[in-house]
Design brief:
Layout (H helix, E strand, L loop, with lengths): L2 H46 L7 H40 L4 E6 L7 E6 L3 E2 L6 E5 L6 H5 L3 E7 L2 E16 L2 E7 L6 H8 L16 H7 L6 E6 L5 H15 L9 E5 L2 H6 L3 H4 L6 E4 H8 L4 E2 L2 H10 L4 H7 L2 H15 L10 E3 L2 E4 L1 H9 L7 H24 L2 H8 L3 H8 L10 H16 L1 H8 L6 H11 L8 H13 L2 E2 L4 H12 L9 E4 L7 H10 L4 E6 L12 H12 L4 E6 L1 E2 L4 H8 L9 E2 L8 E5 L2 H18 L2 E6 L2 H11 L6 E3 L10 E6 L8 E6 L12 H8 L2 E10 L13 E3 L8
Parallel strand pairs: 2-4, 8-16, 8-17, 9-10, 9-15, 11-14, 15-16, 18-19, 20-25, 20-26, 21-23, 21-24, 22-23, 24-25
Antiparallel strand pairs: 1-2, 1-6, 3-4, 5-6, 6-7, 12-13
């Protein structure tokens, strides 16, 4: 690239930034006016938000005026929010206006047209020329997918053809071009080397400047109702999915908003880690929820076992493994449907309990059972339940009439103050009644309805059904594998319920049974569901998600070889199982085999653990060889661990010491705490990452990356063949350096590796 070309490009950057600054100043002025208008409208609304309740005409007029004021407030607030969003976008563009340029020659044209690609579109203030094209615009797809020559791109009007004659890439920092080159690739190695060589900053960044061809295919897919992404560690799969969210919001802006999307993330740490990606692209964050939080909301009053809690428990006791495997399989979900068919036909009992009022049965279990037995078994199950509830709601209304005439309610009515009486009257006034008797009867009935609302709510929410007992009956009926002791299973389930605990393996079949029986539990508003770390999700829960979000398109991402909570399996096997469970009509499977996170040396060591590791491509960013420090007594091992952490702390912002479980993490923290001031022990309750030395169990590090990683003990006692996925996941959290210690002989998983430096007496000089 000549100096003259660089000067021309810098001159354009300067002109664009000048235009951006002009628009920033104008937007700030408009925002100040909008803010003042919003405050004025809100003050006016507050001053006039009262209703004259004495005359009917006055009430209607007051309500109309208040509604007009409310709409004015909403419009003013929305206008201010739009201007604030514009200002934020412009301020981000001022730092890095764009990162790419494509020169295209359309059919019939003599001269190519230069288009510049950035994180957001920008027109000049006259609205006559695009200075920057949003990376999500149809034409921008050429930058990511096209090589020089004839290319095509999809638009709302159909497929368009053009010729790509130049592709140029920029690194612009604070308005200055620091790197610039022409390429025929999506993103040249030079730019990737610069981006990937940076130190970790505790938050995932957007990757729009470095999106690769396969990643772009995932991002721009709008046809698949199921998109399954199998991506090796460090392939950028989570980043890609977040760019996909941004693209979908741009692509269907008039039909889709962030509230109609949900991302299931592995833990709260990870949710915080990715929280800045979408705002950096000018989009609101979609809803994020962990599996545990999702389940906890559906089991009010019970403490649901988390994946992490079960992982810790299974480290000590694997006696429940056969039961877990069965109830987390599709077979258990199919059994739920068969069981409910028997209930519909009245061949299996529906389990009822009393609905009480003031501590006494209001409708008895026997009464519910008697009415249920008379309902036509040919009706759909939900229709039978509706008939049952309607019967008892009619009885409730009759009881309300009687209770309204009771002495105890009349006495209670006499004790009410003016404010309580006004609440019973609602929009009515005393003038709406013929006489005092009619007025008293109305108040008595309203008070009776209010007091018996608890009974109505119980009927409406199906609380006359004993769901725990119903599920226990399901456990009595279901055909179990011979390895499972039925009575021990039921006793364990009931014992945990007594202490308000609910086992994770039973959550999907229990909720599925409850939802199918009652016709509840579905949310048809969500259009997209994203599931990260899919390999950690039981198939039963994926089936339940499909039931819960029946209108949503699913994007599930993960790596079968990073399985911590389930056995390691080949990627093709995992993809087939997931696709079958979600029953997609139009599914797409994408494999991301290029690893970008770690240095070449770390990636080659990590992939050497895997049976198909030779299919994973390591990016050619070189660093030091991963190192193993072997010590044969605990004192020497502790000294080596402390010195390793000190050396890495001097060179990097984030150094993670990864343990196999939280018990080991606690022990490491107590060991290292006297030697380090900036030391953190993270648990599943932590919401954000910290700098310095971080100790955490590997299951909390899923999806995260660190400048350097220390694995404190890779001895054969700690890592057998069953822990291959665990060790692979630990290694691939490291971006730049990987230190491993061993107290005694190292695991046979890596003894023969050629990608490892083993040193019995390693020195600890700072780089």
């Amino acid at each position: 690239m000549t100096d003259a070309e660089r000067q021309i490009e810098q001159s354009r950057v300067d002109q664009v930034i000048k235009e951006i600054q002009l628009q920033i100043n104008a937007t700030r002025t408009e925002l100040a006016k909008a803010h003042a208008e919003t405050r004025a409208v809100e003050e006016n609304y507050g001053a006039n938000a009262s209703i004259n309740r004495y005359e009917i005409d006055d009430i209607a007029e007051s309500r109309s005026a208040i509604e007009q004021q409310r709409q004015l407030v909403a419009r003013a607030t929305e206008n201010e929010a739009i201007l604030q969003h514009q200002l934020t976008t412009l301020e981000q563009l001022a730092k890095q206006p764009y990162f790419g340029r494509i020169d295209i020659l359309d059919p019939g044209e003599r001269e190519p047209e230069s288009l510049y690609i950035g994180t957001a579109s920008l027109m000049d203030h006259t609205k006559s020329e695009f200075l920057i094209y949003d990376w999500r615009a149809p034409i921008s797809g050429i930058y990511y997918n096209g090589t020089l020559g004839e290319v095509s791109y999809q638009t709302p009007a159909g497929l368009q053809n053009t010729k790509l004659v130049k592709k140029r890439q920029f690194t612009i920092i604070d308005g200055q071009i620091t790197n610039m080159f022409d390429t025929n690739e999506t993103v040249g190695d030079e730019m990737l080397q610069a981006v990937l060589g940076e130190q970790d900053n505790q938050a995932m960044r957007n990757i729009v400047a470095t999106i690769q061809h396969d990643q772009n295919t995932i991002i721009r897919d709008t046809e698949s109702d199921l998109l399954v992404v199998q991506g090796v560690a460090g392939s950028g799969k989570t980043s890609t999915i977040l760019q996909r969210v941004a693209f979908l919001l741009y692509h269907a802006r008039n039909q889709l908003n962030a509230d109609q999307m949900v991302l299931f993330s592995p833990n709260q740490l990870f949710s915080h880690y990715i929280s800045q990606v979408l705002p950096s692209l000018g989009e609101r964050n979609l809803r994020q929820v962990t599996l545990h939080n999702f389940l906890q909301r559906r089991f009010e009053g019970l403490q649901v076992e988390s994946l992490f809690e079960r992982y810790e428990e299974r480290q000590l006791d694997r006696s429940h493994q056969a039961s877990d495997d069965f109830f987390e399989s599709p077979a258990s979900m199919a059994a739920v449907q068969d069981y409910l068919a028997l209930i519909r036909q009245h061949q299996r009992s529906l389990q009822f309990i009393d609905v009480t009022f003031n501590g006494r049965p209001f409708f008895s279990q026997k009464h519910f059972q008697h009415i249920w037995d008379q309902i036509d078994p040919q009706l759909k199950l939900q229709d039978q339940l509706v008939k049952l509830k309607n019967h008892f709601i009619r009885l409730l209304k009759q009881r309300i009439t009687k209770i309204a005439q009771s002495d105890w309610l009349t006495k209670e009515l006499d004790t009410l103050n003016r404010q309580q009486i006004q609440r019973l009257l609602g929009s009515k006034s005393i003038d709406d009644f013929e006489d005092t008797a009619a007025y008293d009867r109305y108040l008595a009935r309203q008070l009776a309805k209010q007091r018996l609302r608890i009974v109505y709510d119980a009927l409406y929410n199906n609380l006359m059904i004993d769901f725990p007992n119903q599920y226990t009956d399901f456990l009595q009926w279901i055909d179990l594998p011979v390895a499972i002791d039925r009575q021990a299973l039921i006793q364990s389930f009931q014992h945990q319920l007594e202490f308000h605990h609910f086992p994770l393996s039973h959550t999907a079949p229990y909720l599925y049974l409850r939802d199918l029986l009652t016709g509840r539990g579905q949310n048809r508003n969500f259009q997209y569901v994203f599931i990260d770390e899919m390999q950690d999700y039981p198939l039963s829960l994926l089936i339940y998600f499909k039931h819960t979000f029946p209108k949503a398109q699913f994007t599930v991402i993960g790596d079968s070889e990073q399985a911590l909570f389930r056995p390691l399996e080949a990627p093709q096997v995992l993809l087939k199982r997931v696709s079958k469970s979600l029953q997609a009509q139009h599914s797409t499977l994408v494999n991301l085999q290029q690893s970008y996170r770690s240095t070449y040396e770390i990636t080659k060591l990590a992939t050497s653990l895997l049976p198909d590791g030779d299919q994973i491509t390591a990016f050619s960013r070189h660093g030091t060889q991963p190192q193993v420090i072997i010590r044969h007594d605990s004192t020497a091992w502790q000294t080596a661990l402390i010195k390793s952490a000190q050396r890495l702390q001097n060179d990097y912002q984030t150094v993670a010491i990864l343990s196999q479980d939280d018990l080991q993490a606690q022990a490491l923290y107590h060991l290292l705490h006297p030697h380090f001031g900036q030391l953190s022990h993270l648990t599943e309750h932590d919401l954000s990452l910290k700098t310095g030395i971080i100790i955490l169990p590997i299951y909390l590090a899923k999806g995260l990356e660190f400048d350097a990683v220390i694995i404190p003990d890779i001895s054969q006692d700690h890592f057998t063949r069953q822990q291959t996925g665990q060790l692979y996941t630990m290694m691939t959290r490291a971006m730049h350096e990987l230190f491993m210690l061993s107290l005694g002989p190292i695991t046979t998983l890596i003894t023969d590796s050629q990608h490892l430096q083993i040193d019995q007496q390693i020195s600890f000089k700072t780089k």
